[in-house]
Design a protein that fits this description.
By secondary structure, the chain is an alpha/beta fold. Helix content is about 50%, strand content about 15%. A hairpin with a 6-residue loop joins strand 4 and strand 5. Helix 1 crosses helix 2 and helix 4 crosses helix 6.
Length: about 230
């Protein structure tokens, strides 16, 4: 009887292990979370051997000149609020079914970014396998034609999820005068945030009024720099 229960226990363990391996290989979100967890664990192990302390370092931009190297690392970490993906690629799910204009603009924006060679968006029809989702809102309570929210691992700086919302209240309201090209520029701008870019007051797709410019050479350079440093 004991050997039978031992066999069942071993069988259950193998089934769980097989399911875990299958999920890791087929779900990008699980891969990202798993890799970040191992990175975090490795960081913690190194930290405890180096300092004997598991507390997160305190970010202090007013550190003295005697600690210049540490100060520059902390400043860079504390100001990189957008984060970046583990690689210059992400699966994107376009959750837009009944709005052909905004769906088409999203696809055009994805293709525009892909043509730069700096970042690759891979469209997926499986929402559960998407790291980025793009959807439509109709919201007059905000002044934004597009809104992007992200979550990231504060230890690795790697993005975990990004949600892009295109606000049809402005984009498709004749009163505000959005042309097709301005709508595409808005989608490019929001996808720029999903990549990890912040606003840029120069000639840039990340200009705060996000429909002014399309993707510029400086934007491509900025993305390449992010992912060379990641």
């Amino acid at each position: 009887m004991k050997s039978f229960f031992r066999f069942l226990r071993n069988l259950l363990f193998l089934l769980v292990l097989a399911f875990g391996i299958w999920t890791y290989n087929n779900d990008a979100n699980v891969r990202t979370a798993t890799n970040d967890s191992f990175t975090t664990l490795n960081t913690r192990i190194k930290q405890i051997f180096t300092t004997g302390d598991l507390n997160l370092p305190k970010f202090n931009n007013s550190a003295t000149n005697s600690n210049n190297k540490q100060s520059s690392i902390e400043e860079k970490t504390s100001t990189k609020n957008s984060g970046s993906w583990a690689k210059a690629e992400a699966n994107v799910y376009i959750n837009i079914k009944n709005n052909p204009q905004l769906r088409s603009a999203t696809i055009d924006a994805i293709n525009a970014w892909n043509r730069t060679g700096a970042f690759t968006f891979r469209e997926t029809n499986d929402k559960s396998n998407a790291q980025i989702t793009v959807s439509v809102i109709d919201d007059s309570s905000t002044s934004a034609a597009g809104v992007t929210s992200t979550t990231y691992n504060p230890v690795t700086g790697h993005l975990l999820k990004a949600r892009v919302h295109l606000n049809r209240y402005y984009l498709q309201n004749n009163w505000y005068g959005y042309s097709d090209s301005r709508i595409i520029n808005t989608a490019e701008h929001e996808l720029g945030h999903a990549i990890g870019l912040d606003h840029n007051n120069g000639v840039s797709v990340m200009y705060p009024k996000g429909s002014i410019y399309t993707i510029q050479p400086r934007d491509i350079t900025a993305v390449k720099k992010i992912y060379q440093e990641s």
